[in-house]
UniProtKB/TrEMBL annotation:
The chain crosses the membrane at residues 59-82, 94-116. Keywords: Membrane, Transmembrane, Transmembrane helix. This is DUF1003 domain-containing protein. The keyword ATP-binding does not apply. It holds the Pfam family DUF1003. The keyword Membrane applies. Coiled coil: none annotated. InterPro entries: DUF1003. It comes from the Bacteria.
Amino acid sequence: MPEPTQDTAALWFGREAESLSAAEQSVLAAARQRAIISRDVEQGFAEQLSFGQRLADQVAVFGGSWSFIIVFAVILAAWVLLNTLLLVRPFDAYPFIFLNLILSMLAAIQAPVIMMSQNRQAARDRADAAHDYEINLKAEIEIMALHDKLDHLRTEQIEALLTKQQEQIALLTRLLQAAPPRA
């Protein structure tokens, strides 16, 4: 990646090139080269995930769904019905101490797994935000460059128009001087 020149850094950022962050230097270099900087941030994250991380994400997706709530409600209702009404000798009689133990263990395992998934999602969101910043910064630089080009073209057109007008005035002056006086 070529180094941004002092002129372009001062022009677009108002600072010296050495004081620019790595992202700003990268964006400035990409803008100077007219290179595309957009990329699929999600793909980079997905390729780095281990089996455990993918499993944690799936547990978090299922654990935060209506399917989980419905399945869990059905299992709890079946447990209670089985141990209160259907079995002569219930394996977990009221107050359902074994059920409480299972629910506590499930919560103790599910909470950290969901937190791991949320932490990964937060890291993914930070990477997305950093990438969005780079894209927005490059777009802003490109827009400012277009404004400069338009200003330059407008200045050239005005100068050409003034030159043309001066030539026309000079021609009219010569014609008036060369014309015979009217009587």
